[in-house]
Design goal:
Length: about 210
């Protein structure tokens, strides 16, 4: 479960005030709204990359408002993907697991599992440089899911993809939704994506959040 209770966030001259909404455990929510209204700012606040000035952020009932990002155990795929050009695909999948001190055997098992689910077994030794947009999205998604997060945040994950690749990624996200039981908040401008994926929608309009 993700819950924001009367949260206010400032980003330079931009501010959101009294943001309140909740997403039930295991649900796939889509956040929609016009460009520049604060959708990314909300994701950054939930995962701890942006401090809130007031209010509470709760993950499965625990107040994480002041927790460091790493302690929140949230998977996050930013719009620019934030992939490391010096790492291979395999090293991206291993990254969060190594940080958490997982055993070599557990890391191997999890990366094998992810590579199969994401269809990137043939890319594991490749550098990120030169991968297609869809391949890069799969790697970023794998890194975010590697440590079994209970919450997944996706910032316009399909916006830069061509139509056929976007359809493939929607199918992959539906499969992850079916099997991973991870509470998801997905930012998009696309009504088609929302129709294909969402259990519920949140509309951001003039600083107000409405569950639809």
């Amino acid at each position: 479960m993700i819950e924001l209770a009367n949260v206010s966030i400032r980003a330079g001259d931009f501010q959101l005030s009294d943001v309140s909404f909740s997403i039930e455990t295991g649900r796939y929510a889509v956040l929609m709204g016009r460009t520049g209204r604060g959708k990314t700012t909300v994701l950054e606040a939930i995962c701890g990359l942006r401090k809130v000035t007031s209010g509470q952020i709760l993950v499965h009932g625990t107040d994480v408002t002041c927790w460091p990002p790493a302690d929140r155990e949230i998977g996050y795929v930013p719009q620019d993907l934030a992939l490391f050009p010096t790492l291979t695909v395999l090293q991206h999948l291993q990254f969060a697991l190594r940080l958490r001190g997982q055993s070599k055997a557990d890391i191997q098992n999890r990366t094998d599992e992810l590579a199969e689910v994401l269809g990137i077994q043939h890319l594991l030794k490749r550098s990120i440089v030169g991968l297609s947009g869809g391949e890069r999205q799969r790697v970023a998604l794998g890194r975010a899911l590697s440590f079994h997060p209970s919450v997944l945040l996706l910032d316009e994950p399909l916006s830069a993809l061509d139509e056929s690749t976007r359809e493939e990624m929607q199918e992959l996200l539906r499969e992850i939704k079916r099997t991973a039981n991870v509470t998801t908040l997905h930012v998009t401008h696309s009504t088609e994506e929302a129709d294909a994926l969402a259990d519920c929608r949140i509309e951001l309009d003039n600083g107000k959040f409405q569950m639809l």
